[in-house]
Protein backbone atom coordinates (compact mmCIF):
# COMPACT_ATOMS: atom_id res chain seq x y z
CA UNK A 1 0.00 0.00 0.00
CA UNK A 2 1.14 3.58 -0.55
CA UNK A 3 1.79 4.22 3.17
CA UNK A 4 4.04 1.15 3.51
CA UNK A 5 7.67 0.52 2.59
CA UNK A 6 7.65 -0.23 -1.13
CA UNK A 7 8.95 -3.68 -2.10
CA UNK A 8 9.22 -3.44 -5.90
CA UNK A 9 13.03 -3.51 -5.93
CA UNK A 10 13.08 -6.48 -3.53
CA UNK A 11 10.70 -8.40 -5.80
CA UNK A 12 12.84 -7.57 -8.86
CA UNK A 13 15.91 -8.86 -7.02
CA UNK A 14 14.11 -12.09 -6.07
CA UNK A 15 13.49 -12.87 -9.73
CA UNK A 16 16.98 -11.75 -10.81
CA UNK A 17 18.42 -14.28 -8.35
CA UNK A 18 16.22 -17.04 -9.81
CA UNK A 19 14.17 -17.46 -6.64
CA UNK A 20 10.42 -17.97 -6.36
CA UNK A 21 8.09 -15.22 -5.17
CA UNK A 22 4.66 -15.67 -3.61
CA UNK A 23 2.26 -12.78 -3.06
CA UNK A 24 -0.92 -12.42 -1.00
CA UNK A 25 -4.28 -13.33 -2.46
CA UNK A 26 -7.01 -12.12 -0.12
CA UNK A 27 -10.47 -13.68 -0.05
CA UNK A 28 -13.20 -11.07 0.05
CA UNK A 29 -15.52 -10.89 3.06
CA UNK A 30 -13.27 -13.06 5.23
CA UNK A 31 -9.88 -13.05 6.93
CA UNK A 32 -8.57 -15.81 4.62
CA UNK A 33 -5.41 -15.17 2.65
CA UNK A 34 -3.19 -17.47 0.60
CA UNK A 35 0.30 -16.83 -0.70
CA UNK A 36 0.28 -17.64 -4.41
CA UNK A 37 3.11 -17.87 -6.91
CA UNK A 38 4.00 -14.88 -9.03
CA UNK A 39 5.38 -15.75 -12.49
CA UNK A 40 7.52 -12.62 -12.96
CA UNK A 41 8.04 -9.12 -11.67
CA UNK A 42 6.41 -7.72 -14.80
CA UNK A 43 3.24 -9.72 -14.12
CA UNK A 44 2.35 -7.56 -11.10
CA UNK A 45 1.19 -4.59 -13.19
CA UNK A 46 -1.26 -6.79 -15.12
CA UNK A 47 -2.99 -8.15 -12.01
CA UNK A 48 -6.36 -6.64 -11.02
CA UNK A 49 -6.50 -4.04 -8.25
CA UNK A 50 -8.33 -4.77 -5.01
CA UNK A 51 -10.46 -2.22 -3.15
CA UNK A 52 -7.28 -1.46 -1.16
CA UNK A 53 -5.52 -0.57 -4.43
CA UNK A 54 -3.26 -3.65 -4.25
CA UNK A 55 -2.43 -5.74 -7.31
CA UNK A 56 -3.30 -9.38 -6.66
CA UNK A 57 -4.54 -12.36 -8.66
CA UNK A 58 -8.33 -12.61 -8.94
CA UNK A 59 -9.99 -15.22 -6.68
CA UNK A 60 -10.79 -17.26 -9.80
CA UNK A 61 -7.11 -17.24 -10.85
CA UNK A 62 -5.85 -20.70 -9.81
CA UNK A 63 -2.16 -20.53 -8.87
CA UNK A 64 0.37 -22.55 -6.97
CA UNK A 65 -0.27 -22.05 -3.25
CA UNK A 66 2.79 -21.89 -0.97
CA UNK A 67 1.16 -24.12 1.66
CA UNK A 68 0.43 -26.84 -0.89
CA UNK A 69 4.10 -27.38 -1.81
CA UNK A 70 6.65 -29.22 0.31
CA UNK A 71 9.09 -26.31 0.43
CA UNK A 72 6.53 -23.88 1.86
CA UNK A 73 7.91 -20.38 2.45
CA UNK A 74 11.28 -19.31 3.85
CA UNK A 75 10.44 -15.67 4.49
CA UNK A 76 7.44 -13.34 4.65
CA UNK A 77 7.82 -9.55 4.49
CA UNK A 78 5.13 -8.30 6.83
CA UNK A 79 3.14 -5.11 6.32
CA UNK A 80 1.67 -3.10 9.18
CA UNK A 81 0.74 0.28 10.56
CA UNK A 82 2.94 0.12 13.65
CA UNK A 83 5.56 -2.07 15.28
CA UNK A 84 7.43 -2.24 18.54
CA UNK A 85 10.98 -3.45 19.04
CA UNK A 86 9.82 -6.73 20.58
CA UNK A 87 8.11 -7.79 17.34
CA UNK A 88 4.51 -6.84 18.04
CA UNK A 89 2.69 -5.64 14.95
CA UNK A 90 -0.40 -3.52 14.44
CA UNK A 91 -2.07 -4.56 11.19
CA UNK A 92 -5.19 -3.20 9.57
CA UNK A 93 -7.59 -5.21 11.71
CA UNK A 94 -8.66 -8.03 9.39
CA UNK A 95 -6.22 -10.64 10.73
CA UNK A 96 -5.08 -11.84 7.30
CA UNK A 97 -1.40 -12.28 8.21
CA UNK A 98 -1.99 -13.57 11.75
CA UNK A 99 -4.42 -16.20 10.44
CA UNK A 100 -2.03 -17.14 7.63
CA UNK A 101 0.94 -17.51 9.98
CA UNK A 102 -1.15 -19.74 12.24
CA UNK A 103 -1.90 -21.95 9.22
CA UNK A 104 1.83 -22.04 8.43
CA UNK A 105 2.55 -23.61 11.82
CA UNK A 106 0.72 -26.74 10.56
CA UNK A 107 2.87 -27.01 7.40
CA UNK A 108 5.68 -29.60 7.62
CA UNK A 109 8.26 -26.82 7.19
CA UNK A 110 6.64 -24.72 9.89
CA UNK A 111 6.26 -20.97 10.19
CA UNK A 112 8.52 -18.96 7.89
CA UNK A 113 10.84 -16.27 9.21
CA UNK A 114 9.02 -12.92 9.27
CA UNK A 115 10.48 -9.48 8.74
CA UNK A 116 8.56 -6.22 9.02
CA UNK A 117 9.86 -3.40 6.85
CA UNK A 118 9.02 -0.13 8.59
CA UNK A 119 9.54 3.60 8.50
CA UNK A 120 11.03 4.96 11.74
CA UNK A 121 7.72 6.79 12.33
CA UNK A 122 5.99 3.40 12.59
CA UNK A 123 8.10 2.27 15.55
CA UNK A 124 6.22 2.57 18.85
CA UNK A 125 7.18 1.88 22.45
CA UNK A 126 4.28 -0.57 22.79
CA UNK A 127 1.84 -1.94 20.24
CA UNK A 128 -1.50 -3.21 21.58
CA UNK A 129 -1.95 -6.90 20.82
CA UNK A 130 -4.47 -9.66 21.39
CA UNK A 131 -4.00 -13.39 21.94
CA UNK A 132 -4.35 -14.08 18.18
CA UNK A 133 -1.64 -11.63 17.10
CA UNK A 134 1.57 -13.22 15.87
CA UNK A 135 4.89 -11.47 16.53
CA UNK A 136 7.30 -10.79 13.69
CA UNK A 137 10.80 -12.21 14.04
CA UNK A 138 12.54 -8.99 13.07
CA UNK A 139 11.62 -5.34 12.47
CA UNK A 140 13.86 -3.45 10.04
CA UNK A 141 13.79 0.35 10.00
CA UNK A 142 16.16 3.22 9.47
CA UNK A 143 17.22 4.53 12.89
CA UNK A 144 17.26 8.24 13.74
From TrEMBL:
Its cofactor is Mg(2+). It catalyses: (6S)-5-formyl-5,6,7,8-tetrahydrofolate + ATP = (6R)-5,10-methenyltetrahydrofolate + ADP + phosphate. InterPro entries: FTHF_cligase (IPR002698), FTHF_cligase-like_sf (IPR024185), NagB/RpiA_transferase-like (IPR037171). The keyword Ion transport does not apply. Keywords: ATP-binding, Magnesium, Metal-binding, Nucleotide-binding. It comes from the Eukaryota. Its EC number is 6.3.3.2. NCBIfam families: MTHFS_bact (TIGR02727). Belongs to the 5-formyltetrahydrofolate cyclo-ligase family. This is 5-formyltetrahydrofolate cyclo-ligase. It comes from Gekko japonicus (Schlegel's Japanese gecko). The gene is MTHFS.
